[in-house]
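Holo prediction. Input below; ligand is coenzyme A.
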Amino acid sequence: MNNRWERSILAVPACEARKVAKAVASQADAVFLDLEDAVPPDLKEQARADAVRALRELDWGGKTRMVRINGLDTPWAYRDLVEVCEHAGAQLDCVIVPKVGRPEELCFVDILLGQIEARLGLDRRIGVHALVETASGLARVEQLAAATPRLQALSFGPGDFAASVGIPASGIGTEDDWDRAYPGHRWHYPMLRVVVAARASGLRAFDGPAAEFRDLDSFRHLCRIARSLGFDGKWCIHPAQIPVVHEVFSPTEEELAWARRVVSAYEEAQAAGRGAITVDGKMVDAASLRMAQATLARARP
Ligand code: COA
Ligand code: MG
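Structure of the complex:
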């Protein structure tokens, strides 16, 4: 990915040209052309050529350009990497690898991409983003996060995770009666594990898609849950979801003002030889400074 804080990652089936053109022209911070679950088996081969064309010919306007390949347990994955990266590697920022279950899978992608980059003479590395969405992926998430320096981010995929573990759910990332059956937030464990594993390896973390795209209030609630756990952003499957993600995952003016106040108060305190002070009735120390700096780092110009 580029050196910016992506908040929204918009999914679009690579084989649907009209949607691809709209996605690339949208307000999303990142767009991924999907070769995996949104593309039917008989269009898999064609979709690679569509992805190459979209990467080479469309104006992405500074968005992060991503492609989601098929899983490494399918017959399509290696050719997805070879065909897309050989023909559009220079126009591609990052490859999303779905259903990662073992660190070896990411090492395989790393080595293959390295060979393609060498053949193309690329002077920069194509990034990798791993999708944690199976029981085996979550069980090994710390190993996945540390598998290769090429890795930039982890995403949590709620739909496949529910299927893999046997969690009942009425739709991908959709709130339903089962949420009320559990005395707490039933996605807390996998979500927080993914964030912590990502951070422990210096990676970014994204919450996956929510299929119920017409209910933006419910979507906002899901975004707020993800942000409260530390995620950097959330996937979108429909353009209407993008502004909600930007609203929730950007620091508010109030948060920025507080962060600036903490930084200046802490600097003054330090100059006066103090490490802990009171600002607006709250204790502020070096941990508060780090929290404030983290907030300010997310401010957009
Ligand atoms: N990217 C870009 N444009 C999109 C879009 C997307 N993901 N989803 C919808 N649009 C466009 C539609 O093409 C339509 O534009 P048009 O009227 O000019 O053709 C407009 O937004 C409104 O779409 P709407 O009628 O509300 O939805 P739909 O019924 O056409 O599509 C989905 C609904 C869910 C099928 C569609 O949003 C989609 O394909 N999402 C991505 C699916 C995906 O990639 N899944 C895998 C990753 S999780
Ligand atoms: Mg999935």
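The domain at 8-248 is CATH 3.20.20.60 (TIM Barrel). That is the main takeaway for now.
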